[in-house]
Design a protein that fits this description.
Number of helices: 7
Shape: globular
Radius of gyration: 23 Å
Order of helices and strands: HHHEEEEHHHH
Distance between the termini: 68 Å
Largest sheet: 2 strands, antiparallel
Strand content: under 5%
Length: 207
């Protein structure tokens, strides 16, 4: 009887010790999302053209792989939302032209501008990117190849891609998302300048 009591006490102590260790162990920190972009001048010192092009696209990738962009470039017909890129609620699908299914278009909830009272984002051209422009789940190198392929970039030439990244207002929404959303790093002007410099340096893609 005494032996059983002692064994029970030891077991409780062991469980408590493990539980205490689990409670005090700090979770693995996640890398902080970038909030800024390096200026174009930071890359002028890279003499090797290929290396400079790769470095420029890595900086561009901070925007391209940010949730503000990836949420609208989903790998499936269902968009994602928020920084954690959770499936869109309510349940919606891409539909023809990326504007939602018949009877539940994007404009059912999304107006021509952010509506901060409810937190619902908006833009006059609110829609999903075509499925051939899906970026989620892909490496930066794979996305890079898509951007250069007219069959997967909306049939755009590189000058048109530069114009799109630099001036398109729906792209620009990523820096003015409203509500409590985290904007894309830097500014659209900085991003556009980096993208153009990447194109001008040979548009080299990472492996």
């Amino acid at each position: 009887m005494i032996r059983a009591i002692i064994m029970s006490a030891v077991a409780v102590t062991a469980v408590a010790a493990v539980g205490g260790a689990m409670a005090t162990a700090a979770p693995e920190p996640k890398p902080a999302a970038a909030t800024s972009l390096q200026p174009l001048s930071a890359f002028t010192g890279i003499a090797d053209k290929r290396a400079r092009s790769l470095a420029l696209f890595a900086e561009v990738g901070k925007v391209i792989q940010h949730p503000r962009c990836l949420n609208c470039h989903p790998a499936t017909d269902r968009p994602t939302q928020r920084e954690k890129m959770t499936p869109h609620m309510p349940m919606v699908v891409r539909g023809d032209g990326g504007i939602g299914a018949t009877g539940l278009r994007c404009t059912t909830c999304h107006g021509p501008a952010n509506y901060d009272v409810s937190g619902v984002p908006g833009h006059p051209q609110w829609h999903l990117a075509p499925i051939e422009m899906a970026w989620q789940g892909k490496t930066l190198g794979q996305i890079c190849q898509q951007l250069k392929d007219p069959k997967r970039n909306g049939n755009k030439t590189m000058p048109e891609m530069i114009e799109h990244m630099t001036s398109d207002s729906l792209v620009g929404w990523g820096w003015n998302p409203g509500g409590k959303r985290q904007p894309a790093p830097g500014t659209q002007a900085e991003f556009g300048a980096l993208f153009k410099a990447w194109a001008d340096s040979g548009a080299v893609c990472p492996a």
